[in-house]
Amino acid sequence: MSDDGFHVDLEDIDSCASKLSGDTALASEVSGLVAQSDVGDQSWGIVGLFVKSKYTEMLGDLDDLLGDMRDGLQSGAEKMTACAQTYRDIDTALAEIFNDVLKGGK
Questions:
Q1: For residue 56, is pLDDT > 60?
Q2: Which of 10, 47, 55, 63 has its CA 20 to 30 A from that of 103?
Q3: Three-state secondary structure call for residue 43
Q4: What pTM did the predictor assign?
């Protein structure tokens, strides 16, 4: 193949989509760990009077961030999958056109 033009490696796009989906699962796993890390008020003792509410707020912020990350990774995976499928559809359509031309059709 020459270096002229461009080439799209669909396996690389599929691999990227798969990696993004895997990272989505990782973000969900970390989010589950965040939920487990919030302990009851009594566990904090006297120190909890001063810091527990801030700690709980920060855990909520982290969980929100992980949710946004999960959504973004899932969206990216879906877009990469759609991109690869679009390239495949175009390749198939062009192959059909060339085959028709070679057969003397259309």
A1: yes
A2: 10
A3: helix
A4: 0.77
- Supply the pLDDT for residue 69: 96
Contact 84, 10 (CB under 8 A): yes
Q: What are phi and psi of 47, to 5 degrees?
A: -65, -35
The two three-digit tokens of residue 66, written as one number:
């992980």
CA 74, chain centre distance (Å): 3
Instruction: Give residue for tokens 């990696």.
Output: 19
Ordered by start, the domain boundaries in the chain are: 10-102
Residue 71 to residue 22: CA distance in whole angstroms = 13
Long-range CB pairs of 19-25 (<8 Å, 24+ gap) are: 20/73, 20/74, 20/76, 20/77, 20/80, 21/73, 21/74, 21/77, 23/73, 24/70, 24/73, 24/74, 24/77
